[in-house]
Design a protein that fits this description.
The protein has one domain (22-85): Alpha-Beta Plaits. The chain has 4 helices and 3 strands. It has helices at residues 12-18, 25-38, 58-66, 68-75, and strands at residues 43-46, 50-55, 80-85. A 3-stranded mixed beta sheet has the order 1-2-3, covered by helices on one side. It is elongated, with a radius of gyration of 19 Å.
């Protein structure tokens, strides 16, 4: 059995070269806000309709929940922001 490379196939390197690995601006804004204000790192997942912020502590999640309006304004988004605890 012989295998040949079709002119239509792309190598993994070709696909990755075309991929945009920049963080969405909402993600950058939320991470920066938490780092500046609370000196903590958070994980942020930006999806089509919502943003999920994962924290390491319940106290931080509760504090962020109280500041969700300010967080939306800083991130310049109207997406629903959900908080999770690791």
């Amino acid at each position: 059995m012989r295998y040949y490379k079709s002119p239509m196939s792309n190598s993994l390197a070709d696909l990755l070269a075309k991929k945009d690995f920049d963080e969405p601006p909402e993600m950058q804004a939320i991470k920066q806000f938490v780092a500046d204000r609370f000196q903590e790192d958070v994980e942020v997942l930006v999806r089509e309709r919502d943003i999920i912020v994962t924290t390491s502590s319940a106290a931080l999640a509760s504090t962020l929940r109280l500041n969700v309006t300010e967080l939306r304004k800083i991130a310049e988004t109207e997406k629903r922001i959900t908080f999770r605890i690791r």
